[in-house]
Amino acid sequence: MSTPFRIIILVITLLTFLPACSTPPLRIQSDVVPVGSLRVAQVAGIASREDILKADIYKSIIAVGIPDADLVDGSVVITRIYCCGGMTQELSSEYLNRTMLYVPKGLKVSLGDFVEVKVGRPPEHGDNGRINTVTRVVAKYGEKQESCWWDPRNDKLWLRVPYCEWMPKEGWIKQDGINPAWFKPGS
């Protein structure tokens, strides 16, 4: 058996078992843009109170000072920061880079909405960190006039980022590289 053929067999074998060996963590205190900045994400799932209480993130939410009474159905959402596709769902950029966000009381979000997020950070120097928090809904799913979309507008690409037409005018910056994003630096 030739060496290139052996390498191909090894890669295929590893890719077959990789999803079973590791599920990426659902991040609520980190991101690929600077701490305290704003970014946009799309709501892909809405957690029930029961889901929140069972999840590892519950302790992080309580530790930063969110009262247990505020953790109701819909107060945590799963979002995607990249779109769309990949070799498999488990290896897609949207699945591997899912983030969790806290939704404060008074904000109503729905599946498919684009939301603005204030980026948190993990604990450091003995504090409890900050959690990724929704600040507002920037585009409701199904709006007639689309103000936010996946950019570039090419459905064949696997690594597209949320973009809203108002971003450049409001001081948002495009981050290129391995973790592309549009974000607005924190003040």
Description:
With 187 residues, the chain is of the alpha+beta class. It has one domain. Helix content is 19%, strand content 24%. It has 4 helices and 9 strands. The longest helix has 19 residues. It is globular and about 40 Å long. 28% of the residues are buried.
Q: What's the helical proportion of residues? A: 10-25%
Total domains = 1
> Can you tell me the residue ranges where pLDDT is under 50 for at least 5 consecutive residues?
4-25
What is the H-and-E element order? HEHHEHEEEEEEE
Please identify the structural class as seen in this structure.
Answer: alpha+beta
Mean residue pLDDT: 82
Total beta strand runs: 9
DSSP helical segment count: 4
Beta-strand proportion: 15-25%
Helix-strand blueprint:
Layout: H1 3-21, E1 38-46, H2 49-54, H3 57-63, E2 76-80, H4 93-96, E3 99-102, E4 114-118, E5 133-139, E6 148-151, E7 161-164, E8 173-175, E9 181-184
Antiparallel strand pairs: 1-2, 1-4, 1-9, 2-3, 4-5, 6-7, 8-9
Structural features:
19% helix; 187 residues; two-stranded antiparallel sheet; seven-stranded antiparallel β-sheet; alpha+beta; globular
